[in-house]
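job 3f2a | input accepted
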Amino acid sequence: MNFILAPSATRDLDWLSQYFLETNVKAGERLFKALNQRFYNLTQFPNLGKPYSYLNPHIRGLLVEKHIIFYRVTEIEVEIVRIVDRRQDLTQLFITNDL
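job 3f2a | predicted structure (99 res):
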């Protein structure tokens, strides 16, 4: 199984890279290394994350440091849909953003 990044996840990663470029490059490198490892883990164990059915019945989430990788599993791939700070209002985030 492979993973793909939805456009919303790509935007999240772009924002994170810019943020860490301006604030703390080493912390950004650690986060991106951890994210890449988790993306790989999800291809091997797609149900690793917990369901977030209150946000969307098809969404699962996996905590990585202070962030959550939100994803959905299809028959052929893991689609990463968002990477967000866990302290955000998740309900509002998923109401205002179409997945």
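job 3f2a | The helical segments are 7-23, 25-44, 90-96.
job 3f2a | closed
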